[in-house]
Amino acid sequence: MLLHTSTTPEERRRRLRERLATGRLLVMPGALNPLTARLVQDTGFEAAYLSGAVLAADLGLPDIGLTTSTEIAARAQQTTRATDLPVLIDADTGFGEPMNAARTVQLMEDAGLAGLHLEDQVNPKRCGHLDGKAVVPRAEMVRRVRAAADARRDPGFLLMARTDARAVEGLDAAIDRAKAYIDAGADAIFPEALADEAEFAAFRAAVPVPLLANMTEFGKSPLLDTRTLADLGYDIALYPVTLLRLAMDAVENGLRTLAAEGSQESLLPRMQTRSRLYELLGYQDYARFDTSVHDFTLPPGT
């Protein structure tokens, strides 16, 4: 099997919805790129995520709305090609007005994604765990969600609404917004930057659709373990930037070691081996495929 998905986008969307319908917590790591998405699959996870912060950082940009919908869709398509997992993507504010959000949904459908989330921050946005956020009026976000829902061509494509209102307007307002977004067509809700376990519980008690818990590091929410999140009734545990932080720390330490020691010898035990990388990439499958295509002889007289 060559390194590409063997499933259709419709299959992956159906699988994500069926998985959410079980009521069991879905652990969703954030991939850095197509290869790490494949590794997420290879290590047994059932879904992957593409973080707007990670995609921006990959381009050397801060997470303040500088990326475009077409840049994100192109990266998403590269990732969905490489994994059979359903992939959920961070679509920021929809990259503009409600009509932009509508186009964003269709771009992400075409990219093979299983779903996306839109947030109610002003455009341009900022990281959901920084101070000084601003949210649009509730009616404006309702229009954003409704436009996205109306533009969706595949009803299996998951439309999630994220609210950043907890840090700006308080918990009750965030819950009220979530309910309005559901009425506008959102299938699931992402309450950002909840302050403690009691707030996670209050949101679960008030909102009847699948809920995502963002377990990002160094943020405003506590890092609740999966057992706690399952007991609270959450449907998705998201780890959006974990792999980026791990990888960048390893790269930085490796560079410092190379500069200090003049050799990578001491780093070898911490490296992925060549054989493991080749296994992940399916080198042998490519070799077999190449042989089957090229190992032939022409008939006489041709």
Q: What is the CATH topology classification name of the largest domain?
A: TIM Barrel
Write the element-wise H/E pattern from the N-terminal end onward.
HEHEHHEHEHEHHEHEHEHHH
Main sheet: strand order: 2-3-4-5-6
Please count the helical segments. Answer: 13
How many angstroms does the end-to-end distance come to?
Answer: 32 Å
Q: How confident is the prediction overall: mean pLDDT?
A: 93
Shape: globular
Which CATH architecture of the largest domain?
Alpha-Beta Barrel
Which percent bin holds the helix content? 40-55%
> Compute the gyration radius: what is it?
21 Å
Tally the structural domains: 2
- Let me know the number of strands: 8
Give the uncertain stretches in residue-range form: none
Estimated structural class: alpha/beta
CATH class of the largest domain, anyone?
Answer: Alpha Beta
CATH level 4 superfamily of the largest domain: Phosphoenolpyruvate-binding domains
Instruction: Estimate the strand proportion.
Output: 5-15%
Main β-sheet, in a few words?
A: 5 strands, parallel
Quick structural overview:
It contains 13 helices and eight strands.
Task: Please describe what this structure looks like.
It is a single chain. This protein has 302 residues and is α/β, with parallel strands linked by helices. The protein folds into 2 domains: 9-248, Alpha-Beta Barrel (TIM Barrel); 249-294, no CATH class. The protein has 13 helices and 8 strands. It has helices at residues 9-21, 34-42, 52-58, 69-82, 98-110, 138-151, 166-169, 171-183, 197-206, 226-232, 242-261, 274-281, 283-294, and strands at 26-29, 48-50, 87-90, 115-119, 158-163, 188-191, 212-214, 236-239. The strands form 2 sheets. It has a 5-stranded parallel beta sheet. Strands 1-8-7 form a 3-stranded parallel beta sheet, with no helix packed on it. Helix 2 crosses helix 4 (69-82). The radius of gyration is 21 Å and the shape is globular. The two termini are 32 Å apart.
